[in-house]
């Protein structure tokens, strides 16, 4: 808690969640977006205590965000395109999957590979700013790598 998303290392799919934890957070996310009436893109960030299964929702972004761009790149799922079509009133089951061209866009991406995103800082540009990461974003970009497993993606 207390670290800006842009300052954090992201690994997908999660390497530490159990199936029960993953399904608990997924179910909660679906309940939240249905309760809020979200149509289109939304991401939810959690803090989870793995010892007690207690979780907190840190942030809900019912819009395209930096996290959305990463998720889209990591999965190959065209979030912005699909969200725009939904905003125009097109039903999800009728939208074509732009990757296959034959199936619909109404599916949940599944990764059989690992993606690692690491922020990039240029602290010379911010000479009077603390070098400690916190709730404000100081990174100027990021690098993403894909591999067959965490080790391969991380080493790239």
TrEMBL record:
Keywords attached to this entry: ATP-binding, Ligase, Nucleotide-binding
Any one of the GO CC terms: cytosol
InterPro entries recorded: ATP-grasp, CPAse_ATP-bd, CPSase_dom
Keyword Nucleotide-binding: yes
Record GO terms (molecular function): aspartate carbamoyltransferase activity; ATP binding; carbamoyl-phosphate synthase (ammonia) activity; carbamoyl-phosphate synthase (glutamine-hydrolyzing) activity; dihydroorotase activity; metal ion binding
Residue intervals of the ATP-grasp domain: 25-88
Pfam families, sorted: CPSase_L_D2 (PF02786)
SUPFAM superfamilies, sorted: Glutathione synthetase ATP-binding domain-like (SSF56059)
GO terms for biological process, alphabetical: 'de novo' pyrimidine nucleobase biosynthetic process; citrulline biosynthetic process; glutamine metabolic process; UTP biosynthetic process
Catalyzed reaction equations: hydrogencarbonate + NH4(+) + 2 ATP = carbamoyl phosphate + 2 ADP + phosphate + 2 H(+)
Documented EC number(s): 6.3.4.16
Protein name: carbamoyl-phosphate synthase (ammonia)
Organism: Arion vulgaris
Gene: ORF18002
């Amino acid at each position: 808690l207390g670290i800006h998303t842009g300052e954090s290392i992201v690994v997908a799919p999660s390497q530490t969640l159990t199936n029960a934890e993953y399904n608990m957070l997924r179910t909660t996310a679906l309940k939240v977006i249905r309760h809020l009436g979200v149509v289109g893109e939304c991401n939810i960030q959690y803090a989870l205590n793995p010892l007690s299964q207690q979780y907190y929702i840190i942030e809900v972004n019912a819009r395209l965000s930096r996290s959305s761009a990463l998720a889209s790149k990591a999965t190959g799922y065209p979030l912005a395109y699909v969200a725009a079509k939904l905003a125009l009133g097109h039903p999800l089951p009728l939208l074509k999957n732009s990757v296959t061209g034959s199936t619909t866009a109404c599916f949940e991406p599944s990764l059989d590979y690992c993606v690692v995103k690491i922020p990039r800082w240029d602290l010379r540009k911010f000479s009077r700013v603390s070098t400690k990461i916190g709730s404000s974003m100081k990174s100027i970009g990021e690098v993403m790598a894909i591999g067959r497993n965490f080790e391969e993606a991380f080493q790239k």
